[in-house]
Amino acid sequence: MRNIFHLSFKFQFRKKTTILNIILISLSFLIVLGINTYSDSAMNYMENGVYKSIYFKSLEVSVRDDEDRSKVRKDLENLENVSLVSNFYSYSDILTSKDLSNKKLSGEVQIHVSNNDSLPQIIKGTKFPGNQENYLICPKKLYSTSNTDSLKMISSNYAIDMNQFLNKNVTFSYKSNMEKYNYDISFKVIGLYENNSYLDANVCFTQEKSLEEIAKNKYADDYDKENGISNLDYQTSLFVQVDHLDNMEKVNNQISSLGYRSELNATVIESYFTDIKDTAQTISAIVIIITAILLLVIAFKQYSEDTKTYKLLSYLGYKKAQINKVAIVSNMIQIVISLFISFVIFVIFYLIFKLLLNYYPYLLNNWKVCINYKSIIVVLVTILLSSFVSIVVNMFRFNKGECK
Amino acid sequence: MIHLQNIDKSYVKNKRKVNVLKNINYKFESKKFYCIMGKSGAGKSTLIQMLGLLLSPSNGDIYLEKTNVAGLSENEKADIRNKEIGFVFQSFYLNPLLNAYENVMLPGYIDKKSTLKEKKERAFLLLKQMGLENRENHYPKELSGGEQQRVAIARALFHDPNIILADEPTGSLDPENEKHILEILKKLSRKGKCVIVVSHNDAVKNYADKILYIEKGTLKEVKK
Asked: Which one of A312, A318, A319 has the shortest CB-CB distance to B95?
């Protein structure tokens, strides 16, 4: 077998078509793997970023002075697929906590409004048990900074492990130029959610009531005790959180039909992602079919040259099984080399891409690169199948013709 | 050496049976140079392919020494071709992807008895004997016709076979190279090989110990 391998190696490496086949296989491998990896990365961003982010599932409904704010709120709460209606989307004051800071993280945390229906999945601790205290639900790994480079740090080890704060109080401070507005506030961390690189990694959730209390205390001097209204009531908007991204349009239409004016926080062009997937699959199918056809055409064109070799081997006393081995081993050598070259090129591209993302995280919205392993198998099976077919057909033609 | 007994060979062509060889009886012996002549289509190539165990007779037996090889399996025939028979062709039939040394080595790749070192030494020795000691790394296209044919003879001799079958070995050569090749084949017959050459070329007759003619499917020995 070693000698047959040795001989096949010599035959294969000196054939003119070998380089052509290697380029063809490598190219198709890289195109299919590359395009499907891009598509998978986009879908991963969609599923783990867009679908899970409350930012994409929020609507802002403007309330006019002549409208009854509490009626509008009730109307919105009664709508289907609405999980939360609140005065706040997030709390506007910048709150920082010494407990949640380290040499890289300033301790700054964004506090968003949520309820038990709109919370992300809790992986440790509990949801809101009531509203007796200021409860806080935080990401498992908190990147407490507003620095835009924070995304870069997601790959590093600076994140604060919130496990250590579970069921403990954390104090936040607000500091402004006007001393009378400065205050401290404590929250009890009761639950943790799984965050990923797409979701805002410095977002904690609390209940609307807690934020209202903070605001009331902060604006205590401006609070109209006689009329019992706070500055909060003069806010011009209400914020609606929808249960699922797919229902955004439906809720938006319902709000319009009630005569209210709503605006999407951010628009996701979902079709962009589905188009990527469809395009990737179509291109992959075309590339695979073309590769298979070209491999067969090249193999059949090579037939007369190969036949001369097989005939000669037959004259020299090679048995059919030995000739078949030469044909199969030659093909396998070509495939293994093509895949090795493709693998090396892909790894180089992958590493360059990873390095770029590390330094420029906003390239591709900090998408995670998800290698599509299925396409490796599909290309491999296609190449093996077309090689196998070409070997079988050529050997059949050769054996049928004998060496007469 | 090789004994043909009552050999018939026929083909079916366009639904018609064509009898190429009829009742051939002949005994080829070692240490002899045979020249088989005949018109185109007379059946010379068919006969040499049967002698080389590449074709089976329609009827009759082929004895190699005392073994009837006509009924052997394809694998057994392949083994005999590898060890007992050396082929030389008009178009040299060297593999263009292999250099001279590798072409000579070609029958040896399936030989499990000798070591790679022994096989290499054998190939270099044969090339040296053919006067090609400095041409071992040359590819066929880098060699002259005569040199290519000498590489082909070296390859035919790799396993030191008893029978050399040559189909028009001088057909593509100039007179000088033709003479050189025929002298080599003659020498081989003197060293004990049974050399059977199929040719149109009258010059071959001068080197032959026996001259055979194929006419109308029958084989006849003629006097020199």
From this structure: A312
Interface predicted TM-score (ipTM): 0.88
Concatenate the DSSP letters of all residues of A205-219 into one string: EE-HHHHHHHHHHHT
Is the CB of residue A16 less than 8 Å from the CB of residue A302? no
Given phi > 0 = left and psi -120 to 50 = alpha, else beta, which region is A163? alpha
Domain positions in chain B are 32-42+72-222
**Which residues from B are below 8 Å from A322, CB to CB?**
110
Interface test with A, best of B49, B74, B76, B109 (most A CBs within 10 A): B109
Nearest one of B37, B44, B52, B63 to B208, comparing CA atoms: B37
The pLDDT, as a whole number, for residue A56 is: 83
Strands B16-28 and A95-96: unpaired
Q: How far apart are CA A284 and CA A226, in angstroms?
A: 70
Model confidence pLDDT, tens digit, residues A135-158: 999 999 888 887 655 555 555 577
Give how far A339 is from chain B: nearest CA, Å.
24
For residues B82-109, give the mean pLDDT.
91
Given A14, A322, A402, which is nearest B110 (Cβ)? A322
Report the residue of A13, A315, A319, A329 to disrupt the B interface, i.e. the one with the largest count of B CBs within 10 Å.
A315
Give one word for B183, left, alpha or beta, with left for phi > 0 and alpha for psi -120 to 50. Answer: alpha
Which pLDDT score is estimated for B136?
Answer: 92
**Which residues on chain B are in Cβ contact (under 8 Å) with A15?**
97
Contact A404/B at CB under 8 A: yes
Pick the CATH number of B32-42+72-222 from 3.40.50.300, 3.90.550.10, 3.30.1490.20, 3.40.50.2300: 3.40.50.300
